Every structure is written in C-alpha cells, then in structure tokens.
TrEMBL record:
Keywords: Transferase. SUPFAM superfamilies: Nucleotide-diphospho-sugar transferases. GO terms for molecular function: transferase activity. This is Glycosyl transferase. The lineage of its organism: Bacteria, Pseudomonadati, Pseudomonadota, Alphaproteobacteria, Rhodobacterales.
C-alpha cells in the first residue's frame, strides 16, 4: 500500500520503503530512555494453544525498547494461569500476567459492582480496561500500545511502526491507529470493515446528512484494527465500551477528547492475517452476527450524543440505503480480488450483507428501546474518585496472585 495520499482529516503515515527498520527501532530505543513504552496483550487462554502466539513472543523477545508487557488473561482456571505464567516466561522484558478470573480479581470486581462501576460483561474491552487500570497504577510509562494475540503474520516491525508516532516527542500525536490490507490464504478478508462499516458510514452520510464525526471515521482505512498506541496521559479519561464496539469506541473517545489533529493512522504491515470469526447467522450473541450489532450500536450512540435524532423510520431508510451500497461494494471488491489473484465468494459476501442489513435495524431498535443504557465502562478517573485505593489494590492483587500461584511447566 505504498502511496502518499492524505485525506485531510487525520494524518496518514505510509510505508514508503525508504528507511531501514533497524534505523527506526534505534530511534525508538533512544526515545524510550526517557519515555517508557509498555505493551498490553489481551489474551484468551486458548490463544496459548493457537498458531500465532509463540511467534509473537519470539518477535517481542527481540524488542529492547519495551519497559513492560502486561498480559490480560481471560477464560483461565488456576492451572491454566500457572501454565500461562510459564508460557510467557520466555519474554525477556519485565512482564506480568493478570489472571482476570482469580478470586482476588473477582474481589476487585465486587468492589466496583458495589459502587455501580463494574464492567457490564467480560470480553476484550474489559480485559484491556483492567490492564489499563494496572498500567495507570504503575505510573511509570509515557506510551501504551496494544495488539491482539492471534496475528499469524506478526513481526516486530508492526509494533515499531505503531508506536513511533506517539513515542516521538517531536510529533503532536496522542493516538496512533494501525492499518493494513487483510489478506490471507489467497483470500480477501476483513469482512466487517468492508461489508459493514464502510457502506454504513456512506449510508449514514446520505440519510442523516454531513457530520464531522462520520467524515472522521471514514478517514480510517481500517477502523476495526485491534492495533493502537497512545500517550498514557489520556488513559484516565478514556471510556471504553465493553462489547465488540471497543475499537470504534476508542476512536470516538479520541474524537471527543483530542480532536483529529492529535490522531494519526500508520501502515504497519503489507499482509496481515489473524483468527477469523464465524458469521454465526443463527446465533445473534456470537461471531460476526454479535460483532456487527455492537459496532452499529456504538456508532449510533456517538451520533446521538452529538445531537442526531433517530427514529424507527430512520433505521428503516438506513437499512435500505446501506443494503444497496454494500452490494455495489461487493462487486468492486470482487473485481479487486480478481485483479490481484485472490478469491472472493460473492454468494457468501452477499449473504453476509443481508445479515448486516438486518442487524442495522436490530441495533437501532435496541438503541431506541434502551436510551439510558450505559454500554461504556467508567473511565479510571471516575473509579479513582469513587474509591481512591482501588487501583493500587488491583496492582497488589496481581502481585499476590503471582506470589501464590507459581508457574506450572506448560508441558505438564
């Protein structure tokens, strides 16, 4: 994707293949002497047994500029936590595994619930939110990055390019968002971005008119990428959705708190592939079916906060406009795939568009029926105001879990 196009809304940084990676890494290492950089890895236990994570750790083992790696571990029992401790012990950096399901961490969540501040549901959003709270409590990092643990094409250059814009003290950027083409195994991937978000934003602009927020989201080449880095000064005031709207929610918070001049996107890979979610057309609470609904709700909520008035008729019209535009885009993607020697199943793509169209009205109805719902978790500034000791107690709980539950040989 070596071009130099700028969309005029947010800064775009491209890989023009003119600078050795080693030179960029050396520069980041110099910045890291006074601006410590930490990495958050939200992980399911099952990902330890997958094809990607071992290589990710091997690549991260080469990275000298990371001050700390925080692994948020979900869906793990005590034995699996011990095994995870052993699995991640190969990392040479200072690192910690947060066992989100431990009795101590459940006690922290009970305290949050007593204050009315508990995350509404488990998931990646809650995992990242908890890890951010731990990082804030450590109070020793200037830059935080996060990426998924299922990237099968991972290399250390992805992280270097992601953190550079916010690690460089001479740049004004507070948030850096990664983008890349989603291809793998000879196929054009990235269905939710291609078939839902892009045509939905076009349809919204047509139905409700010009909105700066819509133009802002359309500026991102891959708004749903799980790779972003930011300066830690903004962490305490960041409200993160607990559902699949996490990535859209982070961009929305940047729009609200920072403005587009402090946000950039950076090309971090020529070819990116990771675990693919099932569409799950018969199960509304799973897979891309659930993800598409949550993303629509996140966008609708933000537009409503900015003053857009929605009605049932609005969502019916939006569905119709989206459907026609999405089908047009399926044809364009088919041509793009053909030209590049990639496969694309037109029938499957159009069936997915039909599902997404139904979920636009479904998300709209949920939004209209629950106008007072609080889908985002509280920011850490509010948690601290409600319970000034909680973040330090969270940090202490993680340390106590590490002391009590020794690593277990992963081969056992």
């Amino acid at each position: 994707m070596a071009d130099f196009h700028q969309n005029g809304n947010i800064a775009q940084f491209h890989n023009l293949r003119a600078r050795p990676l080693e030179e960029m890494i050396y520069e980041i290492e110099a910045y890291a002497q006074t601006r410590r950089i930490s990495l958050i890895l939200p992980s399911l236990y099952s990902e330890l047994e997958g094809p990607a994570l071992a290589n990710i750790l091997a690549e991260l083992g080469k990275v000298r500029y990371l001050h700390r790696i925080i692994i948020g571990l979900d869906r793990a029992d005590e034995r699996q936590y011990r095994m995870a401790r052993d699995f991640f012990s190969r990392l040479p950096q200072n690192h910690v595994v947060i066992w989100n399901g431990s009795p101590r961490m459940q006690g922290i969540e009970a305290r949050l619930a007593g204050l009315g501040l508990a995350p509404p549901e488990p998931g990646k959003g809650k995992n990242v939110w908890t890890s951010m709270g731990y990082l804030i409590a450590c109070a020793d990092s200037a830059v935080m990055a996060t990426h998924d643990c299922d990237i099968v094409t991972y290399d250390q250059g992805m992280l270097a390019r992601l953190v550079y814009p916010v690690a460089n003290p001479n740049f004004p950027y507070q948030l850096s968002k990664g983008f890349y083409p989603r291809i793998g195994e000879g196929k054009l991937n990235g269905r939710v971005t291609r078939l839902l978000v892009s045509p939905l934003l076009i349809a919204l602009k047509k139905v409700i008119g010009d909105r700066d927020y819509i133009d802002y989201l359309r500026s991102f080449r891959y708004p749903l990428s799980g790779e972003f880095a930011l300066r830690t000064g903004i962490l305490p005031d960041l409200r993160i959705p607990s559902d699949w709207g996490l990535e859209i929610g982070v961009l929305s918070e940047a729009w609200r708190n920072l403005g587009p001049g402090a946000v950039c996107q950076v090309e971090i890979s020529d070819a990116y592939d990771h675990k693919h979610q099932e569409v799950s057309p018969d199960e509304a609470s799973d897979g891309l079916n659930r993800m598409s609904t949550d993303i629509c709700k996140a966008i609708f909520r933000k537009l409503a906060v900015d003053g857009t008035v929605f009605s049932t008729d609005t969502f019916r019209t939006l569905k119709a406009v989206y459907y026609r535009r999405a089908l047009d885009m399926v044809e364009v993607y088919a041509h793009d795939a053909k030209m590049n020697g990639l496969s694309l199943d037109r029938h499957s793509e159009e069936r997915t568009v039909e599902l997404f169209a139904d979920n636009i009205t479904r998300a709209g109805q949920i939004f209209l029926e629950s106008p007072h719902a609080t889908p985002s978790m509280p920011n850490w500034s509010r948690v601290h105001a409600a319970d000034p000791a909680l973040m330090q107690d969270l940090k202490a709980a993680v340390a106590a879990d590490q002391a009590e539950f020794a690593p277990l040989d992963f081969a056992v």
